[in-house]
Amino acid sequence: MKQIIIAIDGYSSCGKGTLAKFVAQQLGYVFIDSGAMYRGLTLKLIENKIDISDLPAIENACKDLFFEFKLNQKKGSYELYVNGQNVEGSIRNLTVSNLVSEVAAISLVRKHLVRVQQAIGKNKGVVMDGRDIGTVVFPDADLKIFMTADSTVRAKRRFNELTKAGMEVSLTDVLANLKKRDYIDSNREDSPLQLKEDYKVLDNSNLSIEQQNSMAMKWVRESMEH
Ligand code: CDP
Q1: Among protein residues, the one whose CA lies closest to atom 20 of ligand 1
Q2: Bridge partners, 6 (sequence order)
């Protein structure tokens, strides 16, 4: 069977990870959450008290970071390790979420992480989700999906996810964070989130997970046949 690259881009918290994970499992592919890498770097900047205006220090921090995605057998999903440390438990909190889009708008950060992401995908057989996967990281991806959903639906989903994980957050703060990130991600100069004509659009505001999965798998099958 032909190995392909599948790029899933779109707005914050619209279920890109859930879809990417499902598709990767169906195909036996590697799933890479590129946003986790921007979050991992942001976490390290916070821990090391590096200001986001201190570009030389950020450049050094990038060079010092080693990213690995390891399969958690129990959960059946990949988790991010930074320099050998599992950071899954701390990269999705609101402190990181409130800074990550500003970090991700820095060109030297993008240059560094895009290179790491391209190296991971060089053997194909990969599903990667993010904001610039189909435009910058893998412009020749065989299938590009753009995910979107109503912002209040997205905020509720993320709120449920965070509270389930034991975090104390308010729906208002989660919604404000989504809107802020969508704005920064879509308006930054370097590789903004953009819906180009070669994407298949998946608006899942009113779709069940099963419905969205089967829609995506139909596109996957079509891409594999071509
Ligand atoms: O899961 P969620 O939608 O909350 O976001 P994420 O995929 O974890 O990404 C977190 C942030 O990283 C985004 O808001 C972007 O600012 C940035 N990002 C990016 O710039 N480029 C990517 N390929 C992936 C994420």
Answers
A1: 104
A2: 127, 143
In tens, the pLDDT along 175-226 reads: 999 999 999 999 999 999 999 999 999 999 999 999 999 999 999 999 998 7
Is 226 a domain residue?
A: no
Range of the domain at 168: 5-216
Task: Name the closest-CA residue to atom 10, ligand 1.
Answer: 35
**Does residue 221 sit within a domain?**
no
Q: Is residue 222 part of a domain?
A: no
**pTM for this prediction:** 0.95
Within a 10 A sphere around the Cβ of 151, how many other Cβ atoms? 17
Strand 30-33: give its sheet, edge to edge: 30-33, 126-130, 5-10, 143-148, 200-203
Q: Report which protein residue has its CA nearest ligand 1's atom 16.
A: 101
User: Considering only CA atoms, which residue is closest to atom 1 of ligand 1?
Assistant: 13
Protein residues with CB under 6 Å of any ligand 1 atom: 12-13, 17, 34-35, 38-39, 100-101, 104, 130-133, 181, 185
Under 8 Å between Cβ of 39 and 91: yes
* pLDDT tens readout for residues 96-139: 999 999 999 999 999 999 999 999 888 889 999 999 999 999 99
To test the pocket of ligand 1, the residue of 11, 42, 100 to mutate (highest count of ligand atoms within 8 Å of its CB) is 100
Instruction: Specify the CATH number for the domain of residue 211.
Output: 3.40.50.300
